[in-house]
Amino acid sequence: MKSIRLAIDVDSGDFGTPVIIAGILEARLSGVAPFKALMCGNPQRIREAIHTLGAADQLGDFEIIGCSDMVSPGENRAVVWKKQRTTAIVTCIALQKDNRADVSISAGDTAILLSAALFILGRADGAVRPALAAFLPTVRKKPVLLLDVGANLNCRPEHLVSFARLGEHYAGRFLDLPDPAVGLLNIGKEAEKGTRTISEADAEIRRICRNYIGFVEGHDVLAGGADVVVCDGFSGNVLLKVCESFRHLVVAVLGDQVVSDSVFKQKLMVLDAETYGGVPFLGINGTVLKAHGGSSSHAIANAIRAAVTAVNRNAVGQSA
Amino acid sequence: MKSIRLAIDVDSGDFGTPVIIAGILEARLSGVAPFKALMCGNPQRIREAIHTLGAADQLGDFEIIGCSDMVSPGENRAVVWKKQRTTAIVTCIALQKDNRADVSISAGDTAILLSAALFILGRADGAVRPALAAFLPTVRKKPVLLLDVGANLNCRPEHLVSFARLGEHYAGRFLDLPDPAVGLLNIGKEAEKGTRTISEADAEIRRICRNYIGFVEGHDVLAGGADVVVCDGFSGNVLLKVCESFRHLVVAVLGDQVVSDSVFKQKLMVLDAETYGGVPFLGINGTVLKAHGGSSSHAIANAIRAAVTAVNRNAVGQSA
Hints:
Two copies of one chain form a homodimer.
Chain A: E1 4-9, H1 16-29, E2 35-41, H2 43-53, E3 62-66, H3 80-83, H4 88-97, E4 103-106, H5 110-121, E5 131-136, E6 144-147, H6 157-174, E7 182-185, H7 196-208, E8 212-216, H8 218-221, E9 228-230, H9 233-254, H10 256-259, H11 262-268, E10 279-282, E11 287-290, H12 297-312
Parallel strand pairs in A: 1-2, 1-4, 2-3, 4-11, 6-9, 7-8, 7-9
Antiparallel strand pairs in A: 5-6, 5-10, 10-11
Helix pairs in contact in A: 1-2, 1-12, 4-5, 6-7
């Protein structure tokens, strides 16, 4: 297995450079497939963080890609990729474009990262629009891939069809499933339920997906009958975020003293967004993952694991 | 406190007449405010169920409203109210129209019930479209009212504005809050996030709601900062149903043996859709609640409690 070249934006995230670098360290120590970290960010801060973490010897193969520029506050996020090419978030993508990296991770702004990915790397053949996809836990103890989760708020049928194709490919490769079950999110199972957009998408997805299971409702998503759930980016974003908040409700309901129990804590980890570390952008010529702004080092480590797996299994390539 | 006249469709629900009547019995015994049950359904089945339950003496004040007609399979659900007026579901609404009932409950088909309510009772003044509202549990141990949850899939700004007004009134009266906090569901907090529809609705809701807290995201809904969350019926339906399914995920994650523990079982009840029994229709001239098709007798009892409270607090009246 060749070593993956990972461009990572260490200037991003709510907790700054040391947490991102601690995540790289954790990923390395957890025995993920081999990768070389191209750390994009302020060189001074990177060196300080490595020193503070006492990590120089354990970080393995890495390179510091100096990026002194920061995203200007108030800048239109859709044009940062063009106007501020030396920011860490854009540099990661540029490294991919120059074939110096196989995959990028940033915990920075989604809109900046998405536009950089789309305009620098380009749209994959056949993908009508890029989509953000996210894994959620299910009752069957296997994840479900939900897309779109926020890139496309108003969707036409052909967008939903494109998401189905992208999701089928990604889940199939990433989860190693020969025929991932694809469902279309709707408010009921009956043919007459939903909007005209959904009904038109349903007919076409039925034609192109090998294992299309039809409409799935909100309560079906976490039941795990579908491996991929297709929806517009507004509903998907709402659904993803409410699921990410479930853990807080469980803690509130069961009481702190119960949840501080280490067995429960361990079991409830599966409800934690951090476990699924990183939202892949699909429909792009390249593998790009967005980590949560509030990522801990553990979440970054999980995003790195997901990124390395996605590249090794060619989950994004020939995706549409 | 005067006795509420409750028209209840005992022909509805997945488990049939005995379960609905057992729900009436449970409500009665739980010490809810006084009500008279007008049981609409097949008289033979009603008498048999009362006999089987040994409930004749405990049912208190009730009347059997004989409805022999059943909804024809394949009938267009939007016209059942006109073509099959002697079905139990339509009879309930007709009793309200004739001022023989103060409130209706049915566990039957939502579209049939909604069109009957809308066309027989009429739309409330100022309500642009009727909406379905539902309570969800929150981290703060008080419920949040979500609307619309399925009546309006494509919403214009004026629909969302109308939902805000309806929800503010209902939550204020039902939960006895002087200034319920109203939020608008979106994919981010920043002003530029979301669709044009959401942005226009935001400006107008800000003008009319006393305690408008702006955009709320998926993860804010269960956090409990808002008492009312306004959204289109597609996202709301998905959000409601995924939250209703959440209990299954917790059981799967924590393991059966843990959840069979009675303390946990009790605590997890708050996650159960049955606890909130019944979805009120808002924007209608009258109080109508839809109970889940799969309602247990306990869920029906909770729906009755909600119906009686809604009438006693005039939660629906002058709602828009």
